[in-house]
Amino acid sequence: MRPTYMPEILPHREKEISNLASILAPALKGETPSNVFIYGKTGTGKTAVSKFVGRELLEKGKEMGKKVHFIYINCEVVDTHYRVLQNIANHFIQEWADRIPFTGWPTDEVYSKLKQMMDKDGGVTVIILDEVDKLKGDEALYNLSRINSDLEKARVSVVGISNDLKFTEFLDPRVKSSLGEENMVFYPYNAEQLQDILKQRAELALKPDVLKKEVIPLCAALAAQEHGDARRALDLLRISAELAEREGAKKITERHVRMAQNKIEIDRVTEVIRTLPIHSKLVLASIIIGEEEHKKTGLPSMLTTGEVFDTYRELCKKARVESLTQRRIADLISELDMLGIINARTISKGRYGRTREIQTAISKDEIFKILKEEKDDVLNYIVGYKKRGQARLI
DNA sequence: CCTCCACCGGAACGTGAGGAGT
DNA sequence: ACTCCTCACGTTCCGGTGGAGG
């Protein structure tokens, strides 16, 4: 049930598979397939479909005795011009000693070596560039998009995958037109389709009869709300199963799914908070302190930007950190809002000005727990500060 | 109906870190 | 090792504003 697992059948992606396959099929006749751009949100099967088609292509190629190559590169991992070319070139080099090193060569020399190796081989190569928007600079794309005119015999086709619909807008127009010969959009799965996917995987991964019948529909429905993300659906089912197993339950129930949903959300928030820059954490701490303070004095739990800023400044002073300006803090508050950690909406209090009402969006204790694990000296000080009940700052 | 508070949020600018080229 | 360039992060400055209270 890991998202990396590649099943034999991809439910509800038949159309996409045959579409991509027919675009890439000319490779089997030794001709150049068009370059393709694939768009789609996370968990819509972009990677799975292209890997699937790639595998088929290799098999058919072997069957028909055609020289076909299929190279998959994840640009989040391999994210520079040099490393992309190096990766592709090394695919054609069998001898370990001859491989192109991680670093050291001029980039254009890697490019010439690549061309030389490809021509020596003379086959058709399909290159998948997954998460191509993560690539730094567009030189790699530029090189690959015009490599065919530099090659004698060999042929190259590039499949770019991105979940950013606007990605190509920022590209060099030449690259854009060359890579976008064909475009495909992967639409999100709906709840029923997600159910089919889950059923298929559950059969492979779980013993029979361990699922209560409402489990799969619920996982599917929850994931469908989240723009039909198949990865999310599978995660839900997998974590539900793990939770059920951990508590020694005989069956996976709706309760486990709810727990899994909760766990995923907490994990997400934990990760977000943990990686927040120090001043954002201080702002977050200020909001928690402010809310506690309000509770003590019986005020509603809403805070204003001004209050948060005052508390924040106090914290900075106590912790001997230089404080940022209110303007900047206003932006940090907006960011926390966007991340879903707090809720902030602008309201007018008439005579008493215009401000934002700020409130934590998730449990204060949860946030506090995460901040407490913080290794940062400043935060330690503040957490200790608050714990000793000295949070009398307003 | 007007005023005026306490911010909002846009714009221009400064700065240092890090990547590319040489 | 050097320069140049870009980009994220912040600051400064300031015009704009919804609506309670006069």
What is the compact description of this entry?
The protein is of the alpha/beta class. The chain contains 15 helices and 7 strands.
Specify the CATH class of the largest domain.
Alpha Beta
Number of beta strands: 7
> What radius of gyration results from the CA coordinates?
27 Å
CATH architecture identity of the largest domain: 3-Layer(aba) Sandwich
Query: Any low-confidence stretches, pLDDT <50, length ≥5?
Result: 389-394
What is the average per-residue confidence, as pLDDT, rounded to a whole number? Answer: 88
Shape: globular
Largest β-sheet summary: 5 strands, parallel
Number of domains: 3
Helix content: 40-55%
H/E element string? HEHEHHEHEHEHHHHHHHEEHH
Strand residues, percent:
5-15%
CATH topology of the largest domain: Rossmann fold
Mind telling me the CATH superfamily name of the largest domain? P-loop containing nucleotide triphosphate hydrolases
Helix count? 15
Characterise this structure:
By secondary structure, the chain is α/β, with parallel strands linked by helices. The protein has 3 domains: 173 residues, P-loop containing nucleotide triphosphate hydrolases (Rossmann fold, 3-Layer(aba) Sandwich), CATH 3.40.50; 83 residues, Helicase, Ruva Protein, domain 3, CATH 1.10.8.60; 112 residues, Winged helix-like DNA-binding domain superfamily/Winged helix DNA-binding domain (Arc Repressor Mutant, subunit A, Orthogonal Bundle), CATH 1.10.10. It is 51% helix and 12% strand. It is built from 15 helices and 7 strands. The strands form 2 sheets. Strands 2-3-4-1-5 form a 5-stranded parallel beta sheet, sandwiched between helices. α11 packs across α12 and α11 packs parallel to α15. The longest helix has 21 residues. 36% of the residues are buried. The C terminus is likely disordered.
